[in-house]
Amino acid sequence: MKHLLSTNDPTMIAFAQALLQGEGIDCFEMDVNMSILEGSIGIFPRRLMVAERDYEQARQTLIDNGIEVDG
């Protein structure tokens, strides 16, 4: 798995996941439980991960839709 995106904005994660799923790219959201434990006040960012083989296509998909990726 390769790190694609980190954000405190849950709507950004949902939008990114929808875009990637629309392209047939599987993704996995990490740190969901940590953000729930901290009370959803936005201290801990959630991370979106993709398989290494899908990274370049996923990165380009997000960039084409105005989402800034990490790395």
UniProtKB/TrEMBL annotation:
Residues 1-62 form the DUF2007 domain. Gene3D superfamilies: UreE, C-terminal domain. Pfam families: DUF2007 (PF09413). Signal peptide: none annotated. This is Signal transducing protein. It comes from Roseovarius litoreus.
